[in-house]
C-alpha cells in the first residue's frame, strides 16, 4: 500500500483567533482554533496548517498559545507559517508543539535561512511556502513562466518559481507548499500546469494550494503530482468536508486515509 | 496509572509525545535525570532530525547507558522515529556512517523512493502476535516522516532472534516500521501524531508496563 494523499485544512489565525469566515454548525466558538482543529481531526483531516496573519509582532505571543493549546489536544501533524523570520522563531514554534514550520518571505530575502533551519531542526520540519503566479505580460520573463511573489501575490520578484523550489530543496527543505496566486480565491480548480512544473523538478513532497472550489478539483491536482492538497475557505464555509474530498479522490483511484 | 519518562536530550517536539502519552493514560515526566528515568515504568526515547545529531545528544545525557541499564533489568523502553533508528548499529547519512546504540544488528540507510521524505499516513504489516498493534485493523494508518530507515535485518551468521517481531511498511521499498523485542520496542512512525490509531498503540504499550 502506498502512503495516502493528505488533505490539509488551513486556518488563518489573527491574534489567537481564526479569521476568514468559519461557517460550521454546532461550534461553541467558531473563532477558537483549538475547537476547529478538533473538529477537523474528527473529519479525518490528515494534517493542519495555521497561517499566522497577526500584523503586529507584539500580538504574536497569542500564536504560541494557540499552537500550544492545539498540540495539547489534537494529535495529528501541525504546520505553522506566517511571519517566521529566523531560526529563533522556528525554535519557539517547535517548542510550542508545531511539527513543521513554513518559511516564505524571510527565505526569499535570505535563502541561507533554509539551510540553517534544516541543519538545526531537521529537514522534516522545514517547509518552503511559495506564492507563485504566471508572469504577467508586463513582468520579467522566467524560465518556467511562473514567478515567486510577495505581499499576498501583489508583488512579483522576477524569481522563477521552479528554480526557487529546486534551490530550496538543495538548501534542505523537507516539503514545498505551492500556492497559486492566480487560482487562489477563484474556486476554479488548482493550477495544474504549475504543479506539474514543480513536481518534475523536485523530489520532496509537494502540497498543492489555491483554487479548490469543488470535490472534483482535488484528484486532478494529485494526478498532476501533488502529494497533498490544502484548502481553506471551502472547508471553513462548510461547502465541503474533508470526508467528501477524500471520497471523491478515492473514487478516482487515489489512496486516502 | 503507569509512570513514563520521555527522555529529554534536546530533540524535537517533546510536548506532543508528553501529551499523547498522558491522553493514553500515563503520568508523564520529560526529563534527562537518570534516577527518574530508571524508576519510571516506561522510558520513551523520541528523536527527530539527523541520526548523528540525535546520537550526539543521546550520548551527552548518557541515554545509551540508560537504555542498557533498563533493558538489563527487563524494563520497557519505546523508541520513536530517530529514537528507533539509533537503536541499530549504525546510521548512514550522505555516505558517512555514524555509530548507533547497537541494540539491533544492521544499518539505517536512505530509503530508495521517488519522493522523499516519506511524509504522511501509511499502513503497516504486523505479525498476528504483535503487542503494539493488537486489535488493530490492517487498514490502520500511522503518520511517518523520515528519509532513512532500517531496510532489513543484518543477521550475518547468527540465527535471527526468535523473540523479535518485525513490523513492515513500504515506501519505494520495504522497511522496518516497528520492532518488538521483549522490553525494547520502537516505531519508525510517530504514534503521538497518528491520531486515534497512535493513541491505541500507545495504550497497548502502556498495557505492557
TrEMBL record, chain A:
Protein name as catalogued: Imidazole glycerol phosphate synthase subunit HisF
NCBIfam families: hisF
GO biological process, one term: L-histidine biosynthetic process
Listed pathway(s): Amino-acid biosynthesis; L-histidine biosynthesis; L-histidine from 5-phospho-alpha-D-ribose 1-diphosphate: step 5/9
Family assignment from sequence similarity: Belongs to the HisA/HisF family.
Coiled coil regions, renumbered to chain: none
Xref: Gene3D superfamilies: Aldolase class I
Biological function: IGPS catalyzes the conversion of PRFAR and glutamine to IGP, AICAR and glutamate. The HisF subunit catalyzes the cyclization activity that produces IGP and AICAR from PRFAR using the ammonia provided by the HisH subunit.
Catalytic function, reaction form: 5-[(5-phospho-1-deoxy-D-ribulos-1-ylimino)methylamino]-1-(5-phospho-beta-D-ribosyl)imidazole-4-carboxamide + L-glutamine = D-erythro-1-(imidazol-4-yl)glycerol 3-phosphate + 5-amino-1-(5-phospho-beta-D-ribosyl)imidazole-4-carboxamide + L-glutamate + H(+)
Subunit structure: Heterodimer of HisH and HisF.
EC numbers, comma separated: 4.3.2.10
Active site per database record: 12, 131
Gene (name only): hisF
One Gene Ontology molecular-function label: lyase activity
Enzyme kind, highest EC tier: lyase
Pfam families in the record: His_biosynth (PF00977)
Subcellular location: Cytoplasm
HAMAP family the record matches: HisF (MF_01013)
Keywords: Amino-acid biosynthesis, Cytoplasm, Histidine biosynthesis, Lyase
Transmembrane segments: none
GO cellular component: cytoplasm
From TrEMBL, chain B:
GO MF annotation list: glutaminase activity; imidazoleglycerol-phosphate synthase activity; lyase activity
Keyword line: Amino-acid biosynthesis, Cytoplasm, Glutamine amidotransferase, Histidine biosynthesis, Hydrolase, Lyase, Transferase
Catalytic reaction equation(s): L-glutamine + H2O = L-glutamate + NH4(+); 5-[(5-phospho-1-deoxy-D-ribulos-1-ylimino)methylamino]-1-(5-phospho-beta-D-ribosyl)imidazole-4-carboxamide + L-glutamine = D-erythro-1-(imidazol-4-yl)glycerol 3-phosphate + 5-amino-1-(5-phospho-beta-D-ribosyl)imidazole-4-carboxamide + L-glutamate + H(+)
Location of the Glutamine amidotransferase domain: 5-204
Biological pathway: Amino-acid biosynthesis; L-histidine biosynthesis; L-histidine from 5-phospho-alpha-D-ribose 1-diphosphate: step 5/9
A GO biological-process term: L-histidine biosynthetic process
Protein name per UniProt: Imidazole glycerol phosphate synthase subunit HisH
Native species: Actinopolyspora alba
